[in-house]
Amino acid sequence: NTAIGLAMLPMSRHITMTAKFLVYAAWTLVTHLLLAIVMLLLAVGFRFGFPTGAHILRFLVLGVLTLLATPIIAWVSVCTRSLIAGCGTALALIILGQFGTLLGANSGWMPPAVPALWALQIIPTTTPQLLVFLALSVGFAGLTYARWSRMQLA
Predict the structure, then answer these.
(1) Run of H or E including 65
(2) What confidence tens digit (pLDDT) does each residue in 6-20 have?
(3) Is the pTM of this model over 0.70?
(4) How far apart are the two ends of the chain, measured CA to CA in Å?
(5) Torsion angle of alpha carbons 112, 19, 82, 64, nearest 10°?
(6) Based on the structure, what is the number of domains in the chain?
(7) Nearest in space to 113 (alpha carbons), one of 104, 21, 148
């Protein structure tokens, strides 16, 4: 069992949880950098024109905003002790984000829709809406750390 194996390591659970978040963050950022390069090559290859630095930067920031949804998924996975529940939560966040994006003007206050609305610039996304999304991410990261530190391994 992975959880029992992690419990045997001579380090605190907070360090283990931080390592998990950092590995996922690094994986997400490297993936988005590679996707930005592929996007650039495809745009030039198909003669769509050379994307501006602003377009590439917006794509990379979208990757960071997407990364900020991770603590919500991690919290559900830790509480339920189930990878399937985490996958279901990720799917639910994607669906909620899609509905929020389709709803339009008032959906900026639906946190899963904020990254897509910000990237698409269909409607203006305000700083308070981004701060609510950030606060939820930080809050769920705190809840995940708290739950992980009290978790009983058996």
Answers:
(1) helix 53-67
(2) 666 677 778 888 888
(3) yes
(4) 9
(5) 10
(6) 1
(7) 104
How far apart are the C-alpha atoms of 112 and 119, rounded to whole Å? Answer: 13
The whole domain housing 74 covers: 2-150
Question: DSSP string covering 13-34, please?
Answer: HHHHHHHHHHHHHHHHHHHHHH
Residues in the chain: 154
What is the per-residue pLDDT across 32-90, written as a single tens digit (0 to 9) for each?
999 999 988 999 899 888 888 888 888 889 999 989 999 999 999 999 989 999 999 99
69's tokens: 């949804």
**Token digits of residue 95:** 């669906």
CB of 89 closer than 8 Å to CB of 83:
no
SS3 89: helix
In sign, the C-alpha dihedral spanning 83, 87, 90, 96 is negative
